[in-house]
Amino acid sequence: MFKRLRRLRMNENLRAMLKETSLKIEDFIYPLFVVNGNNVKKEISSMPGVFQLSIDELLKECKELVSLDIKAIILFGVIENELKDSCGSEALDENSLIARAIRAIKAEYPQLFIITDLCFCEYTDHGHCGIIDPHTKSVANDLTLEISAKQALVHARAGADMIAPSGMMDGIIATLRKALDENGFENLPIMAYSTKFASAFYGPFRDVAESAPSYGDRKSYQMDYANAKEALLESLEDEKQGADILMVKPALAYLDIIKELAHHTLLPICVYNVSGEYALLKAGAKLGVIEYEKLMVETMIAFKRAGAKLIISYHAKEVARLIKEGKI
Ligand code: PBG
Q: Is residue 16, in this structure, part of any structural domain at all?
């Protein structure tokens, strides 16, 4: 005797009824890159369909997102080199690019949930994620915490709905929670980039965000991708410090990490399906060597099957269209 597992696969309706994992529009967060100026819509060559947008163009994009029923965006600011300095002062101004973008979006599309990426690499002239310690030449952790709290308040006052610190500084969650609570933002959630690896999958992002480090790498703050135990330690530490949502980034090569984390936390888990993962699929489609849509959906399902609740993805609009058309 053997079990006929195929019995339940014979009928299409039954297959649909027994499907364990599915995608919905609410699972997705769409990344947007804002730049200064007017009428700017500059496509990134390695990431077809992803643009640097000035605020007027950003609003047009938001209109499309709302029409697709996408609920949430994550915002990145990209500023001119002349505006960058050693500590990323632009990001600390109440009138920073991100603050202006948040206010503009909230005025026209208050229903969109705005998450802000909180980091300094897009704003510093050296491209690292905080203030540099002149002796170690690495990011000075505690000084960076101080300015991160300031940046969080700029985002919060401008109307951000959730703050997502991505710099991998020790103590960042406790620092931001305290700053937000002391300033009347105790109900503003923090989504921690809690397990973020030093990854070559971020390559295309650094083109779009113009945030590649001018020297060295990020290995003294982002994690070694060989380490699974440390990955768990990082996320669980952020949970202890008060994170509301945890994140694993990148996503596709880290399904084991997502699953392991899902076994150790009751908090919602977000994954960041990063720029390099997107660029690979787009390149594969261009070469005609993959069935793009099928591969994209299979990838998204894999994230959720591994234990992710939310997915930050440059594919979000494409997935939303498939969902709307009833194709998935
Ligand atoms: C900023 C940040 C990065 C990404 C998100 N926030 C780049 C980095 O850490 O170098 C990567 C996103 C992507 O690759 O899509 N610290």
A: no
What residues are annotated to the active site?
196, 249
Cα 202 to ligand 1 centroid, rounded to whole Å: 6
Domain membership flag for residue 144:
yes
> For the segment 6-45, what is each residue's pLDDT rounded down to a tens digit?
999 999 999 999 999 999 999 999 999 999 999 999 999 8
Query: pTM here?
Result: 0.97
Distance of CA 255 to the CA centre of its chain: 16
> Total domain count for the chain?
1
User: Is 301 within the bounds of a domain?
Assistant: yes
What's the burial of 82, exposed, middle or buried (CB within 10 Å: 0-12/13-18/19+)? exposed
Residue nearest to atom 2 of ligand 1 (CA): 166
Q: Which amino acid is at 254?
A: Y
For residue 17, which amino acid is it? M
| CATH number, residue 55 | 3.20.20.70
The Cβ-side half-sphere exposure at 193, using a 13 Å CA radius, reads 26
Tell me the residue range of the domain where 181 lies: 21-324
Which residue among 128, 129, 166 has the greatest number of ligand 1 atoms within 8 angstroms of its CB, and so is best to mutate? Answer: 166
Residue range 61-74, pLDDT digits in tens: 999 999 999 999 99
Q: Which residues pair with 190 in a beta bridge?
A: 163
CB 121 within 8 A of CB 213: yes
